[in-house]
Amino acid sequence: MIRPDLLLHPTPKGLYCPPGDFYIDPVRGAVDRAVVTHGHADHARAGHGAVLATPETLAIMEARYGEEFTTSRQPVEYGETVEINGVTVWMSPAGHVLGSAQVVVEWKGLRMVCTGDYKRRRDPTCRQFEPVPGTHVFISEATFGLPVFRHPDTDGEIRKLLDSVAMFPERTHLVGVYALGKAQRVIKLLREAGYNETLYIHGALEKLCKLYEDHGVALGPLETATLDTKERGAQERFRGKIVLGPPSSFHDKWGRRFPDPLPCFASGWMSVRQRAKQSGVELPLIISDHADWDELTDTVREVDPEELWITHGREDALVRWAELEGRKARPLRLVGYEDESID
């Protein structure tokens, strides 16, 4: 079998495929041809000559960057194969956000899988992760690649939020969520938990919430959390309500106008108590869109590749774990990813 680095290898711009002449999630500068795993900004940049991705990811990129984010776009459904200069490329669900995909690259009998970002837990807003059989080289993210990161039950974290709303009906619960993926997932989980009241959202979430609904993800009654300061007592209608917005929005003038705000933050990083305390979070919600330590290691065992390549996060601990398991592993040391900004 050919050497894996002849098919894919790390470069300053990202993972490059020489025979196919394309990059996977290029992060530094525009390239002629990009294959994009999902729509988060640290994986999907504008300005590439051609972009191949799932239809949902292309729609997300258009919503974020405008219609002319690329010269040419090629939508690929999960499981659909395409040939790029003799290299076969197809997508398998990654379970991270709407449209997220693992990129499967095949050439001369070698199969390599780049996960992008992924999680193994059920997410009602996107397709669940599907392991790719027969993988020779598995390129895994490692955002939470330390044994200390073992995320609690997601439904339990949603219950914590609802219990707090019931316990403090005089307060406005401000829930920090990232605009793509986390916001829609938290909203949908609240609906599944029986919360059918109107949810209020920051204007920055509107476009992507609508996009999710356009793709069949029903989010229930949503209203923009606007505060008319000229209307007497306008803030009072938010007492006992849940308001979702980007984490940064709750520290500015907009967030401080809500009555008796109770700051929350839905993030895998909320398992680090000091981080929650420094952020002024009263109710940390440990809800992550990335695999935790057990999910990372269980996935590697399930896929059982001949080689494990690790990127985007805590590489060294996962390399050491693999070595102790008798697995061949290497860190890629790719630069440019924002390993703590999207979780």
From TrEMBL:
- Any idea which GO molecular function terms this record carries? exonuclease activity; ligase activity; RNA endonuclease activity
Enumerate the Pfam families for this protein: Lactamase_B
Checking InterPro entries in the record gives: MBL, Metallo-B-lactamas, RibonucZ/Hydroxyglut_hydro, Xnuc_lig_assoc
Positions of the Metallo-beta-lactamase domain: 31-161
Q: What is its EC number?
A: 3.1.-.-
Q: What class of enzyme is it?
A: hydrolase
| Keywords attached to this entry | Exonuclease, Hydrolase, Ligase, Nuclease
Please report the name of this protein according to its UniProt entry: Ligase-associated DNA damage response exonuclease
